[in-house]
């Protein structure tokens, strides 16, 4: 991702649930310093079933929680045989330098009609006029309207800080030789 001068859309001092974005995902109130990146994800989700976590709450319980406590398998472990390739181990996102995830938009869940048969390049959220179906001797039948799904959609922007870490630095941090986020530390 490249740095951008553009401001995030709908930046809010807090989300609709009253969360302070500066504190969300913050490890003990420590601020950021030094070089790094602010990564911005723009997206939407349809996981908005009434009576279950939805909207901003769903984002916090899934994406934000995974950025804080999640991990990925990387070839960071010691070789299984001398001189061999490194073994795959769990590396936390914190060890990779990811921190301070926050939902920066304050939006409400909206009802939408979704065309599940939209083809690539078409916006599935828009009604598209389909070509008439030909019947018999070339006479065009009335076009059947698309069967639209009624869904609940949340558009969002999530940002997080990323200070890339080298594999060698992560290994030294695990051994306690240099300062860093050990693999077993969570926020």
- The stretches of 5 or more residues where confidence is low (pLDDT under 50) are 1-28, 127-133, 182-187
Q: Give the SSE string.
A: EHEEEEEEEH
How much helix, percentage-wise, in residues? 10-25%
Terminal-residue CA separation? 25 Å
**Largest β sheet strand count, sense and barrel closure:** 4 strands, antiparallel
Q: C-alpha Rg, in Å?
A: 23 Å
Secondary-structure content class: alpha+beta
Global morphology:
elongated
* Count of distinct strands: 8
| Proportion of strand residues | 15-25%
Put simply, the count of helices is 2
Average of pLDDT? 76
Question: How are the elements arranged and paired?
Answer:
Layout: E1 37-45, H1 55-69, E2 71-74, E3 89-92, E4 98-103, E5 110-114, E6 134-135, E7 139-140, E8 149-162, H2 167-174
General description of the model:
- The chain is elongated, with a radius of gyration of 23 Å.
- The longest helix has 15 residues, at 55-69.
- By secondary structure, it is α+β, with helices and mostly antiparallel strands.
- Residues 1-28, 127-133 and 182-187 have low confidence and may be disordered.
- It starts with 36 loop residues before the first strand and ends in a 13-residue tail after the last helix.
- It contains two helices and eight strands.
- The strands form three sheets. Strands 1, 4, 5 and 8 form a four-stranded antiparallel sheet that branches. A two-stranded antiparallel ribbon has the order 2-3. Strands 6-7 form a two-stranded antiparallel ribbon.
């Amino acid at each position: 991702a490249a740095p951008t001068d553009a401001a995030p859309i709908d930046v809010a001092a807090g989300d609709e649930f009253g969360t302070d974005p500066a504190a969300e995902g913050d490890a003990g109130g420590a601020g950021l310093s030094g070089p790094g990146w602010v990564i911005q994800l723009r997206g939407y989700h349809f996981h908005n079933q009434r009576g279950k976590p939805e909207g901003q709450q769903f984002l916090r319980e899934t994406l934000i929680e995974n950025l804080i406590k999640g991990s990925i398998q990387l070839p960071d472990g010691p070789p299984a045989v001398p001189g061999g390739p490194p073994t795959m181990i769990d590396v936390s996102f914190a060890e990779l330098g990811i921190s301070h995830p926050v939902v920066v938009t304050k939006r409400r869940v909206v009802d939408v009609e979704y065309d599940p048969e939209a083809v690539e390049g078409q916006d599935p959220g828009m009604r598209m006029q389909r070509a008439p179906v030909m019947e018999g001797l070339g006479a065009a039948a009335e076009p059947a309207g698309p069967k639209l799904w009624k869904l609940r959609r949340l558009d969002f922007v999530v940002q997080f800080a990323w200070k890339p870490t080298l594999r060698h630095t992560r290994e030294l941090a695990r051994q306690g030789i240099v300062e860093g986020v050990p693999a077993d530390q969570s926020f």
